[in-house]
Amino acid sequence: MPSAAHTGVVKIGASATPTVEADGIKSTDWPLGRDVLETTDFKDGKAKTKILGLLGFDITLSGDFEPSDASQTLLRASLLDGATVYVQNLFDGTNGYEAGFKVSGFKVTPDVAGIPQMTATLTSTTDVTVIP
Amino acid sequence: MPSSAASCRAYATGTPTSMTTEACTLSGGNTVAQVTNTAKRILDPAEAVLLYDNGVLQAASTYTLNHCWGKATKASGSWTGPVTMSGKYLPQLELDETFRADIAVTRDVLESTVFKNGKHKTKELGLMTAILALDMRSMAGKDFDTGGGTMKLETWLTDEEVRVLEVTFPDTTLAFRMMGLLGSLKASAAVGALHQVTATYDATAPAGTSIPKPFAWSDE
């Protein structure tokens, strides 16, 4: 049964299980992925065989730039000081993922006709926790 | 609460101007000294700063200088006060035909995964940089200096001088400043539209200076 995404919750913090909901975030992308390692050998016939390697992925959080929001401020600071941030994204308010990330990019775009927009790019550096 | 970007502003710096024993305000438990006069906070990165604490000249190794915001942070201990700075500041001129800004701060990602990590990758962050692009309803030859001087972007592309750019945000004291070189100037003209210029700056401190980070948000 499809569900509307507006019930989603994004929490960001400096330690695991963050509790503070981020303000301004309107869109998230979580392309969970593992490296795919090909194991095909002569014995396997015509089809390739694979196993899974390391888990690693980049997520983006984007929306309105909120200069006073603690979570967005933490993202900006963590980009500069290299600290790990923890992002918990509950897509329907209950179910989702959490992982630790390094903030590799923070972009702000003010346009005279709109509201300043932000995009944060984060790269995973821990395992993923499936919630609940 | 989001605000309209219509009250954002963009600035660039002009000719370095001398300042002598400029008063500073202490904060952070007297560990941070910032030039009090907001118009004199952008310190010329090409000019040495002489910082005095209670009348005694301080060695540059005893503090970290934030040129973009005129802040000196003690490496250890606190300032006695009063603190003053002498050197040169960079006055600001508004890039008043800016209608869009794009601020991108990024860091290299370095993979640090080892056998012990288990099934997931681990990462550390490497070198950082920033790129600032400003879209203006201008021609490349517009003179932004409303005083007696000249400030034309097309000149900046060839004079290779580092300037400090700033973008402010509405309803907040937060702003972003960046030392940078104008690396790209794209002029657009269409018969049914206004002249438009996109100026893209790459963050860098002037050659030969030892400034560790040529950009900063105002709340750093």
Structure, described:
The complex is a heterodimer of chains A (132) and B (220). Chain A has 132 residues and is mainly beta. Chain A is 9% helix and 45% strand. Chain A contains 1 helix and 9 strands. In chain A, strands 1, 2, 5, 6, 7, 8 and 9 form a 7-stranded antiparallel beta sheet that branches. A two-stranded antiparallel ribbon of chain A has the order 3-4. Chain A is elongated. The two termini of chain A are 19 Å apart. The model of chain A has no long low-confidence stretch (mean pLDDT 93). Chain B is mainly beta and 220 residues long. In chain B, the strands form 2 sheets. In chain B, strands 1, 9, 10, 11, 12, 13, 14 and 15 form an 8-stranded antiparallel beta sheet that branches. Chain B has 1 helix and 15 strands; from the N terminus they run βββββββββββαββββ. In chain B, strand 6 (63-66) and strand 7 (71-74) form a beta hairpin. The two termini of chain B are 22 Å apart. Chain A binds chain B through residues 24, 34, 54-56, 64-68, 73, 76, 79-80, 82, 102-116, 121, 123-128, and chain B through 1-6, 8, 99-109, 111, 113, 118-125, 128, 167, 169-170, 172, 174, 176, 213, 217, 219-220. Strand 7 of chain A pairs antiparallel with strand 10 (98-111) of chain B.
